[in-house]
Amino acid sequence: MTRRFSLAKNFKHIMALLWLVVLYTYLGLAAALSKEGWRSQSIYQLLTDRYARTNGSEAPCSDLGNYCGGSWQGIINNLDYIQTMGFTAIWISPITENIQGDTYDGAAFHGFWPQKINQVNSNFGTAADLKGLSDALHERGMYLMIDMVTNDMAWEGNYTTVDYSIYDVFDDPSYYHPYCPITDYQDYTNAVECWSGDQHVTLPDLATESTVVLNKWQTWVSNITTFYGVDGIRLDACLEQDQQFFTPFETAADVYIICEVYDYPVQKVCDYQNYVSGLLNFPIWYLVIDAFESNSGSMSNLYDGITQMQGNCTDVSLLGNFVENHDVDRFPYINTDSALDQNAIAFVMLNDGIPIIYAGEEQYYSGGFPPADRETTWTSGYDTTNIYYQLIKSINLFRACVIANDPTYLTTNSVPFYLDTQVLGVKKGSTPATQVVSVFNNRGIDAVAYNFSMPGTGWVAGDIVYDIYTQQNVAIDENA
Ligand SMILES: *[C@@H]1O[C@H](CO)[C@@H](O)[C@H](O)[C@H]1NC(C)=O
Ligand SMILES: *[C@@H]1O[C@H](CO)[C@@H](O)[C@H](O)[C@H]1NC(C)=O
Ligand SMILES: *[C@@H]1O[C@H](CO)[C@@H](O)[C@H](O)[C@H]1NC(C)=O
Ligand SMILES: *[C@@H]1O[C@H](CO)[C@@H](O)[C@H](O)[C@H]1NC(C)=O
Ligand SMILES: *[C@@H]1O[C@H](CO)[C@@H](O)[C@H](O)[C@H]1NC(C)=O
């Protein structure tokens, strides 16, 4: 009896140990998403201050230029809304302590005015809350991407008054470029070596080409990603930093970085992918807005843009596609035609690369110039019934299903194959049996039905395909 009992007891211990090992491995895997692992993700971008309050209050915010009360705990409490929409990762605002209080240019609710990088922004919660958010995501099999500013520190006042001793790491003028204002973002040296900001909030520009500055950022980022279990980084203002900074910084971070190179020329933007894994797909964003902002937008430029990106970028599957973000006019601000908006959303979600939807896009928010485009998500009541939430959810779930069925879907480049003045056809996938054929148009909500034939899908009459828009099987006819 004694022996059997002790065996049973040991068995329990072994099981407990195994369970711990399994749990640890699971958490370890979740926290160590590879760069390639980002390809299959779908990202929901939110501003921490604008997504959800800790106490759940959905009262309107009286001033979008100031803090509205969103927090990391608020996000934790409202992850179902995001995960149910099919997202597998969130991108949150920069986490560091910023300029305190209100300024002539508003408050640092966006997180882009760093001062103390070893402290978290207390408006968003505590370090434990942030760790809690990371854990909560990983427990769901989701991932955390944080926004980061390495280009500069921030100072309330003009450049003549900066007191460098207030910064906790970069506390000496020797870490910075001497003052000069950026006057031409197209001039590499001027953009990299001069300062942005204005006379009310100036942004002392770190010498990111200096080894001393790089090493300090490497030490910092390596600790931050491990400490908080960060899976990816969105890096701010890449056009304003030395290109040589990115590779060693990403190596130290040991996670995927997606850079903000806010510019149009395809060759210029793609060149940055020689230095960093990921890029926000600004060239395609310009073309998407142009194609869908009106019934006469250019479908052919978008058609050409797809292959130009493939030809110029190292790996289009690691780009991040978007219609909206916190810096640009929301689509419905430009045009209220909901059919155009839905086409734009569907295009970016199915294009080569990673879909990114900006909080409020699924609620048809219509803000223009910042901070108007930084609305509070809670004002919507987190409605999950509207057509945009449902569309995004359908495409996310569909894409996940396609990825699961076709191991090379993500790395098989899109093939634009059909074009007329208002319609664009694109196919993507390794075989006709698993491929996705997407048809986009800018005919708008009032368009009347018409028939047209679209050769080149690779399908033949009688093939049965699944239509994700109507969610029905349809047969290909002779006119395919
Ligand atoms: C909820 O929190 C906000 C700030 O985040 C605060 O302004 C508001 O008074 C709180 N509401 C309640 C009912 O406690
Ligand atoms: C790592 O970062 C955390 C959070 O900022 C901080 O508390 C900790 O002291 C850092 N560790 C090291 C070794 O710098
Ligand atoms: C900078 O601010 C200081 C203090 O407000 C002021 O005296 C000075 O004239 C300003 N200089 C410039 C160049 O704006
Ligand atoms: C790169 O993009 C440019 C347009 O910006 C295009 O003319 C060129 O053909 C592209 N290169 C390749 C190899 O596709
Ligand atoms: C399109 O073709 C189908 C099948 O031939 C036909 O039933 C339908 O009426 C046509 N619609 C229009 C708008 O011509």
TrEMBL record:
Catalytic residue positions: 236, 260
Domain of life assignment: Eukaryota
Residue stretches making up the Glycosyl hydrolase family 13 catalytic domain: 45-399
Keywords for this protein: Calcium, Carbohydrate metabolism, Disulfide bond, Glycoprotein, Glycosidase, Hydrolase, Metal-binding, Signal
Any one GO biological process: carbohydrate catabolic process
Disulphide bridges: 61-68, 180-194, 270-313
Residues that, per the record, bind substrate: 113, 234, 327, 374
Cofactors named for this entry: Ca(2+)
Catalytic function, reaction form: Endohydrolysis of (1->4)-alpha-D-glucosidic linkages in polysaccharides containing three or more (1->4)-alpha-linked D-glucose units
PANTHER family: ALPHA-AMYLASE 1, ALPHA-AMYLASE FAMILY MEMBER
Record's protein name: alpha-amylase
Organism: Alectoria fallacina
